[in-house]
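Exercise 7. Predict the joint structure of the components listed below.
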Amino acid sequence: MADSTSQSRSRDLDKLLLRPGNLVGSTFEPGTQLREDIKEIVRVLVIGAGGLGCELLKDLAFSGFRNLEVIDMDRIEVTNLNRQFLFRLGDVGKPKAEVAAKRVMERVSGVDIKPHFCRIEDKPISFYNDFSIIVLGLDSVEARSYINSVACSFLEYDSDDNPREETIKPMVDGGTEGFKGHARIIMPGVTPCFECTIWLFPPQVKFPLCTLAETPRTAAHCIEYAHLIKWDEVHSGKTFDPDYPEHMQWVYSEAVKRAELFGIPGVTYSLTQGVVKNIIPAIASTNAIISAVCSLETLKIVSGCSKTLTNYLTYNGVEGLHTKVTEFVRDKDCIVCGPGVLIELEVSITLKKFIDLLEDHPKLLLTRVSVTYRGDNLYMQAPPVLEEMTRSNLDLPLFELMSKTPTDIVHVTGAAGKGDKKQSCSRKLRVVFKGVGVTDMDMAGGA
Amino acid sequence: MAEPKVKYDRQLRIWGEQGQAALEKASICLLNCGPTGSETLKNLVLGGVGSITVVDGSQVEVGDLGNNFMVDESSVGESKAKCACAFLQELNDAVKAKFIEDCPEQLIETNPSFFSQFTLVIATQLVEDSMVKLDRICREANIILIFARSYGLMGLVRISVKEHTVIESKPDHFLDDLRLNNPWPELRRFTETIDLNTTDAVVHKHTPYIIILVKIAEEWAHTHGGNLPSTREEKRRFKDLIKSKMITMDEENYKEAMEASYKVFSPRGIGPNLQKIIDDSCIEVDSNSSDFWVMVAALKEFIANEGGGETPLEGSIPDMASSTELYVNLQKTYQAKAEADFLVVEQRVRNLLEKIGRDPASISKANIKSFSKNARKLAVCRYRLVEDEFNSPVQPELQKYMTDEDYGTAGGLYILLRAADRFAVNYNKFPGQFDSEMDEDISRLKTTAVGLLNDLGCNSSALSEDLINEMCRYGASELHAVAAFVGGVASQEVIKLITRQFILMSGTFIFNGIDNKSQLLLL
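Solution:
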């Protein structure tokens, strides 16, 4: 009863990729060519080699992808071992990306995984453009927002404000917390980007300092008092480091003292760590579930072998098991995935003046701005060599630097936001010079 | 901290040390270690279950290298159980791992007592006939059973246990047990010491909302013939009354009081879920009753007597704007009442135990305390025998699942998976297993599925041709990502079953990997 394919490694996947179906994507062309393209041509970037990342690398390797890369700045910790199944006790202290890549390659022959042990901001923007699809296994809103802004910066619109298909960089994003999680697909310009639905991730509520100082009521208040107020009072100038056990121990014992003083129960060392490090509980099963959805959706987006998720899945396993698919809609005025923020300029304006202008622009509020135009660095804040090389451009008119193009897209990176809430981002600007070339200046449609 | 405690830190924050201890005591049997089985067990080994026994009679084939992480190149031709067991052991050396090279179907037929040694059996990739047989064996021996199956882009997870009772269900959103609409004498006395009309602005803005609401509710009842607000208009006026007490508009405690005013309006007494539990026939306890039902019987007595229609008080309060002193004293008032209620419940439990001829001390104080504290959140889950579901599913439900827009695909997949198993009995292969017979298989599967629906007394017109086609396309393939999903769900439910925390999924879960509109079917 042996079939010709039963001796093939792709025995099971072939059923999905080689056979036609009726419930498939419009681009689906089943056959060995498709299987080979997934193997040879498609390049997938996995962001994060943690709870989701480990699962994603395994699942993607078994979904026919051969060219994978993974980026993660963290090293392995003991607390990872209850779910990050590619790591062993002996790996503690080693870079996650490197160990994860090695383990999957050892087990799944033929797959190539290139690890990057660095911050996502350390890679040039162009690095991200080399991938067919980006899969996010992250635990921070800031990192998601950054990758989203990078992927959306590649998006170009045609003259009718429709996204150019070849510039769409698809993303698949997963996230978990305890028994809960989400998976979504982002097709910039087509489905809502991370920023369009940023309200799904409300900012974390911090305790007011006056509560901590004057009216503590809970164990967490006592801990945050020791962590945020008492530490600085006692250790002038020394920064608190949550990874130093002595530091944590000190905060714990101060919190205990304060709790006793006020008659507040419940301060434990474990809670102290949880509050100070903002620990999110995490288990293997939820990571497996969410990563599986993300990997399957990645395969579907690339191959068209089935329908795709439209476009957001929430999962909750606390009470029974609930999954829900919601079709969110784009924010047409989104400054990240829209056609670009319209900036009207005089032809005489210098690059320096242009950069200053972005700082005060109400939609942008960008500081430490670097500017690129059609892949060329016009001005770079870092590294120092590049800064020096591009510094002389600052006094030149932007119009000249853009080869006197009357209107075009300029990419800028920098820090967005006010005060201490700044975060790295990439923005696309639609620069229009006044009084040249185009007479119809109504370029703002949809911007 | 010791290393194991650090290793499990992120999960201890979810199910605590008691939950972890239960996992470490559990002995788990896995039937078939293809990707679905391996992935299920992987998540459990990582979490630190006591022991695993992997049962599989097959050898590793080249095809397995493309979907199973627990085998590798060097394992081809070797026992799959042995290879998977060794790789699973690598994940956590605290787990005792062993394997048995035996075909699960054979074990089910010839050695039913084999399963009695385990806490729980995870049966993966079994076809209908073996499922039914194993289910009878495990039900008889009172062994917890969970089925998991991956098939192309679909999957199925089904728990089977006669009864599973939960004390610590840890629901996400549950109304705080504050008794604002029904304060007990000590709470009332405590609030009497506070004057909301104080002119001291600092005291005024540090009065916790519990006190504000109890006092204002009392004031309202006084002027409304003893009733609390019930109509929308009354509720609005109640909020206005709260607002009128504010000295300045930025008093956090009063803002919180307005937001929490619905807690005053909520009905007194117990909710429908708990009512159903205390009305269950199991509360007629005898010496064979479980601890849970003995405690429920005691709880019912408490509610009818000392509780005055209410459960024992939970005893905790949420954080709220307040002076430290008032908050701490308020907390103590709630804790004292909870402790007093618990002592009454405990006495009733001990009396009942004596009455049914059991040692009155046979249920620990800690258990009764936890029960008393969680009385409002108790949960009871029961599952039909798989055989009963298969032979006589709840008909209106099945009909709904077949035609409803939201359920349609999942309902169709459920029927087609069962039809595929019937198909396999008749044709000795699964539909679409071989490329050359696709067209015949599609029409044969359709005939089989229509026959099945007719047997179940269900209209077959809603069965989608596209879905039949899709099932044949899958050809019984076991895709890794689908297996990872199904295994993830199965392992999650195993953890709930063993820790006796959280609420189990009810019914049969159908994973729909086509558009992710998965469903729980209550059949």
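Discussion. The longest strand of chain A covers residues 423-433.
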